[in-house]
Amino acid sequence: MDDVNLITQFRAARKLHQLMREGGESPERLWALSRVYANLGQECRWFLRCQFAVFQARSLLYAKRLEAKAPDSVYASLATAYAWTLAGYPAYAEPYQARLDQYAANAEQEAEQVPEWLAWAKLTRACALHDSPALNQLMRSDGPQSAIAAMWAVFEIELLDMKGLLFNAIDKAVDVNPFSTRLLYGGYNAMGISTGHWLTTTAPEHFASMSAQQLGQIKDAPDVLLELLDGIGDKRLTPNQLAELGWAMEDLTADGKDQGELSYAVLGGLIGEANALHTVYRARFMRTQWDVDNSDYLRVALPSLARHPYKPLIHSHVQKRRTSNAFTQELMADFEPGYINVYSISLFSKHLPFRGPRFANGWDMNAWWDRVIDGGLYSSSDWLCNVRWFESDNYSELAKNADRMQWSDKHHPGRIAWVLLDPNLDEEQINNLTNQYGSHPLVATAMSKKMELAGNLYAARDHAETAAKASPERDTIERYARLELLLGNEVRWLELMKQILRLPDRGLEHAGINQTIANTYMNQGRYQESLPYAKASAGSGAEWATSTYMLNLALLGDLEKAKALGDAVSQRYGPNRLYDIRIAAWVGEIDVDVMTQRAESVIKQHYGSDPSKVVWNMAYIDMQFGQYDQALERVLSNGGQDVQSARELLFGVVAAQALGRSEVRDQLLDKLIDYPLSRGKRTRFALLADIMKKAVNTGSIDWGEAAKWAQRYDEKQVELAGNLGLFALTFPGDKDRGIQELLALARKPSGTDLMVNAARTALRRMGFTNKQMMPTGFAGHEWPKQE
After folding, report:
1. CA angle, corner 649, sides to 585 and 737, nearest 5?
2. Per-residue pLDDT for 640 more than 60?
3. Against a cut of 0.85, is the pTM above it?
């Protein structure tokens, strides 16, 4: 029971059921069974389907049975507190924890020997209160609680942006429990490309080998299963061989040859779920992070999922240059959507179109997503996952989520951080929260943000220093460094940034820090000082790092080398990057016809089977070169398509406004305003259309509303502000403001956003020179303004 992993916990549950059938129930046995099911629920928490919820429900069922049979037993309170806490609802465990505290006080006073249950009571309290010192003490105890204490330290931060803290917790947890299925992907969402590649290739092999080893230890199964398992512990199984073994286990139960509870069919199904998880993570990694063709990988991997009901969904991750809605529809035509883990549906959000292809029951992806969200169990980790999906920086929205989350886990440091960011919090509430939780790095970081927003940079710096000392990692130290810089302490800033370069590099973090240092120097036009850091960042081979170096060279006038780097990046990551067009637009050396033809050739080759993507990409480029008539024609010619993207409609609106074609503009605006919901919310483009429609009716743009609207979208602001800036040029009273918006963009020569070039081109047509548009706003640290 103390080895918390999938197979040993399954075997423990089966053995406990057998003991109770043969010898009856007892408080100790019910507590043990409840605990094992809670552990199984955690081991299945990342699976695509909802086995975790079934195990959590069973955990609570046996805890409640114990409570009904022996309400005064310490084990009744212990089982219920443990079940609720591990399921992610520590708030529901509080009354049981209060009883345990009383039992513990009496036991420590009366007992000559410390009872065995007392350490479990301390564990549930430490988990429910997110008490890091207590968890660390239990972790070091080498007792049966150490594995859960170590895993809980991972659970509570794995969906938060504290990478260093998370990876340190995973290292400790794996030392205590090296065979946990749950821990295999505990840090997946925080990993960079190199680490993600390593993980998604080694995890399936690790799972197959450890499963073979553990299955080989089974000696008490039905004879027919023992025949299947004979000698398996000495074999190196492939994922496909492991899948075949899992199917054989399922068939034993179907044929009536295994009557035990839990049946080995359950274990066979869990092995299949683990295989599915490995496959979808690897395929998704190759498609979205590595950006390479994964069709050969899936051809080999998919046979291990022959019986998995979500095989078509996983197959949809295939990366083909001409993958189309028709291909997706072919996969989905016979697929019946069912319950899916709230965590896992996000694995399908990057490539499956939310509108268009439909499942067998008529739903599209958007309808299925809404159903999953509405049916979510919403434990503490579900709320964290939900906020991560939507990447909300809207503090009022975060405060609402924090209010909802208090009913499941009111002491979670992530929730406390959201509460603190609420602008409506009074000073007494802030002091109470910081006195109780202020030492946690997440809470200290939230206070640092709050103080910075209030303009109190010294207090913001002090809280950032607290966070950096509690958790010395990139995010905490970088925030501390940036605040030192804003206070004018350039030497201290650089010392702290270099301190990050001495930390372990767990995902291109060193490349990111070198890029930030380079961008910060470029922010002041100190291009020669930025060059060595830009070059060091590019040494990682990452596209974004290389593009920084490329633009640094362009700023220093070395266009030949910059273009050569752009060509190299395009060759490695795909010609659709169009770096030659970006540099040409930046320096003003544009042959419009040649550039447009080249861009169209590349984009059609890349998106040929998806007309909407071809249209909006080309309309984007047309507008960069001032060819609004051609951009509008592309949008209108695609109007007969069933699916016009929101971007397509937005570019059509901007082009029609520039051409004075008000009737067409209004038609496209109305379509954009009524655009279908995405993940239950209106798209950012539809919200932008509201502002444009109001401007059309009143004759001017409501810039205050636009500013509030833009704050919601953080990294998306460049694209949105650029479109609003181009739109503003056509309003007499807003033209100067539009020029300001475009100048702000033009001075951010991003290596990834074409809207920057659109702004530069528009300004150049109005007479602005390259010198007037020299960069001062890189995505680095803002340099302090000298009075």
Report:
1. 55
2. no
3. no
